[in-house]
Amino acid sequence: MFMIPLFALFLFGPALADEVAFTQNAVEVKNRTDHPIACAAQLAHWFSADLGVAAPGDALRIDFVIDPATGTVFIRNVGGERMPVEAAWCGVEGRAWETRYQIDLAEVGGGGVTCEAVAEGQLTCR
Predict the structure, then answer these.
(1) What is the spatial distance between Cα 34 and Cα 25, in angstroms, rounded to a whole number?
(2) One digit per residue, pLDDT tens: the chain, 126 residues?
(3) Contact between residue 70 and residue 106 where contact means Cβ atoms under 8 Å apart
(4) 28-67: buried (b, 16+ CB within 10 Å) or exposed (e) per residue?
């Protein structure tokens, strides 16, 4: 019978218990425009991270992690660490900030967003 040493539970138990409290929620961004759309997240006042690009007619899956106790939304960096998201948006690739649609982080658990082009190159998503 395999037994986990007690010291391992002491070292890793709190981290494992902490991770169980978080929920994984994916948002699918469907591109119904004639141009590729790019999505990004603001992780700090001076730093943003690319979340991916969806070609016309395709979709982009964005995996968020949520702390249900605080409502804080995170993405994981390449090292697997949770990075708090201050804002997330999608816009026409190459002009994503200028044409952006801001994703409502309070509704990240909703599951999906469909983006369409509107007047003057802006996106609207619902």
Answers:
(1) 28
(2) 444 444 444 444 444 445 568 888 888 888 888 889 899 999 977 788 999 999 999 988 888 998 988 889 999 988 989 999 999 999 889 988 888 888 888 777 666 677 776 656 677 777
(3) no
(4) ebbbebebbbbbbbbbeeeebeebeebeeeebbebebbbe
Q: Token pair for residue 11?
A: 């070292």
Task: Tell me how far CA of residue 26 lies from CA of 5, 46, 62, 114, in angstroms.
Answer: 35, 25, 5, 14
Give the dihedral of Cα atoms 22, 26, 27, 31; nearest 10 deg: 160
CA-to-CA distance for 107 and 110, rounded, in angstroms? 6
- Smallest CA-to-CA distance from 39 within 59, 66, 67, 24 is with 59
What is the chain's length?
A: 126
52: tokens are: 């991916």
Phi, psi for 78 (deg, rounded to 5): -65, -25
Q: Looking at the DSSP assignment, which residues form a beta bridge with residue 54?
A: 37
